[in-house]
Design brief:
Layout lengths: L4 E6 L2 E6 L10 H16 L5 E6 L3 E4 L3 H7 L4 H24 L4 E5 L2 E3 L1 H8 L2 E5 L3 E3 L13 H9 L1 H10 L3 E2 H7 L4 E3 L4 H13 L3 H13 L5 H16 L2 H12 L17
Helix pairs in contact: 1-3, 3-4, 4-5, 5-6, 9-10
Length: 273
């Protein structure tokens, strides 16, 4: 555990918790640097089968640390640019790491998700939210444009018109709103969030690492391909998957009418663009 976040590992699920509850887990420079380093290690750790992101206290993450950025405004221009730039660069690197992650990543939204917190939720593979969670862009309110890939992920998840509304107007949206537009996959009572997160994370951890990684790439790359190109990519990915041990285990489990037990060592599956 550090001053900014903590990581616990149980049954192959690594839970990364933002630990600045007094600031609603606002992203500081130190927190951004640590987040990048932790995500890089967790996505490569063979003992990790799935990753959960959540926040301590009553917020998931309330965006960047506005007080620190205000203080940076008083610095000479070169130092101001370096200070704010370092925060933004590491925030962006964290999103890129999530996009490349061969392990499933789930956001467990326990409260407010604003600014970069909203971008983090959108960047995860799946998301679950407490029924009292809230979501807002907050960028225009601060007089800035989005970061954290929000301008990339939100239009793809919500559609361009709905994403534009969310990003332009900075309205506060409920967990029910987020479920309706497809930002989160599940909404549960706040008292049940921890249990529901563990149950779904266990299901993610039980997936075939090869099949998950290949499917994630197919979903991510599909929008830039023609149908014929996507069909070819699916064919190559399917054949690569059948060459892995997980396919042998999956077909055996199907024939034997039991749950498959996929090998955690096969996390670096084939990806064919």
């Amino acid at each position: 555990m550090t001053d900014t976040l903590s990581v616990t590992l149980a049954d192959g699920v690594a839970t990364l918790t933002f630990e600045r509850p007094d600031t609603l887990n606002a992203l500081s420079e130190a927190m951004a640097v640590e987040l990048c380093a932790r995500l890089d290690r967790l996505t490569q750790d063979p003992g990790v089968r799935a990753i959960v992101l959540t926040g301590a206290g009553r917020a998931f993450m309330a965006g960047g640390d506005v007080h620190a950025m205000r203080a940076a405004l008083e610095l000479p221009e070169a130092r101001r640019t370096r200070a704010i730039g370092k925060l933004v660069r590491h925030a962006q690197l964290a999103i890129a790491t999530l996009a490349r992650s061969p392990k499933p990543v789930m956001a467990s939204v326990n409260g407010a998700a604003a600014g970069f917190g909203l971008a983090l939720v959108a960047a995860c593979d799946v998301a679950i939210a407490a029924d009292n969670a809230t979501f807002t862009s907050a960028y225009n309110r601060l007089g800035t444009s989005p970061d954290g890939g929000a301008s990339f992920t939100l239009p793809r998840l919500l559609g361009e018109r709905v994403a534009a509304q969310w990003l332009y107007l900075d309205e506060r949206h409920s967990a029910a709103d987020a479920l309706r537009v497809g930002l989160v996959n599940w909404v549960v009572p706040a008292a049940e969030l921890a249990c529901a997160t563990r149950e779904r994370a266990a299901r993610l951890a039980a997936l075939s690492p090869v099949a998950f990684s290949n499917t994630k790439h197919l979903i991510a790359d599909g929008p830039r391909r023609t149908l014929d190109a996507q069909l070819l990519a699916e064919q190559r990915s399917f054949l690569a998957s059948t060459s892995a041990g997980d396919f042998r285990e999956g077909t055996a489990a199907f024939a034997e009418r039991r749950a498959p037990r996929f090998d955690a060592r096969t996390t670096n599956g084939e990806h064919n663009a």
